[in-house]
Amino acid sequence: MIVEIRTYTCRVGSVPLFLEAYEKEGLPLQREYLGEPIGWFVSEVGSLNEVVHLWRFEDMADRETRRAAMQQDERWRTFLRSMAASNHLISQESSIYRPTSFSKMQ
């Protein structure tokens, strides 16, 4: 099992607008292809205007297969274009982690 941690940095004041658009359009599509996310979080202390979300996959091949299928969906490509046009995001970062042998999450 692996966990993908994605961090989006939004423009000041854009977090609520980004989350509203994502919840309506992006989340239903991602759930269709990627399953239920582990969680979504916003920063309160430290680096502000960040949105972090976590996704669970069986392995890198599972992640690649599911994300490739989503990328082929015209609805997802339309959503990405609308997000780019909205100019809410400054940057995106993605990290992949695997659990330790003693982790409760396997």
TrEMBL record:
Q: Where is the NIPSNAP domain?
A: 3-104
Q: Spell out the InterPro entries in the cross-references.
A: Dimeric_a/b-barrel, NIPSNAP, NipSnap_domain
- List, alphabetically, the Pfam families matched: NIPSNAP
- Which residues, by range, are in coiled-coil regions? none
Superkingdom of the source?
Answer: Bacteria
Record family assignment: Belongs to the NipSnap family.
PANTHER family in the record: NIPSNAP-RELATED, PROTEIN NIPSNAP
Q: What is this protein called?
A: NIPSNAP family protein
Which organism was this protein described from? Paraburkholderia rhynchosiae
